[in-house]
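Case study 2.
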Amino acid sequence: QGDGGEPPAGSETLVEALRDLAAQANQPPAKHAGGALMRDAGLKDTPEAALGLLLKRGIVAPDVNLLLIRYDMERPFSATVEAEADTLALAPRSTVDREDLRHLRPVAIDDPGTTEVDDALSFERLPAGGVRVGIHLAEPGAIVPCGSAVDREASRRQTTLYLPDGKRLMIPGALSENAASLLPGADRLALSVLVDLDDQGSWLAARMCRSTIRVDRAMSYEAADEALARDDDLCALVELAEGLRDQRLAGGALDTRVPEVNPALSADGRVTLSGITGNSRSRAMVAEWAVRANEV
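Prediction:
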């Protein structure tokens, strides 16, 4: 015991209690089992002392992310949640009361390496004149039953975290990166916002529907920017979005864009930083159509 003490071998519950104590902030140690362990060992029952003990024994790494421990985001999905996700990913999809929009050719534009594809855009010219823009949003709620193990776990996690050393998914990858992801060439359930505009780009009408879609292709923002010179539909999506954005700014909207940086952590612990260009027309376009979808 003492400063050289450590939890008995194999006592995973004791280690978890110490990890929990180390991750706490502004909370009385007496409320944590780790605090009692530290006091029984004759040690201070502070988060700092618990972290020091875990570091000394090599139980946690020097760069351990205590926030992830505090909010229980380091814990992997349980076998029950993983198994249920695998089953749901293979289950038949009901298309009852869904609009079949598979004749459209949506494009998904994201950062390179994106695996959770949650939105795509389509463009079509209407027979009577004008155009229709589709903002298609992935609908995992159509796959995951309310109250299921996956649903309860998603409610606990709230969101997917994207961190320099990787991501912590909200729902297992069998769903978030596959069955519910808007992957090219696959039929997917979605929520679609369909916006009609006249030939001058003025807003005419909009509606939302549950749909079945099939994404035609996926592109990075850089590839989309390069394709503008030869892709008429993509160019039209960008120009329409820029016109709508100008209208918003003229009406008093604030442009709050700031420079963005993507940090990444290599296997050997080195940090690299890459900037996100602020003049990407396709990135601004995707953001603008997301704003418009939220208005419907």
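Confidence is low (pLDDT under 50) at residues 1-7.
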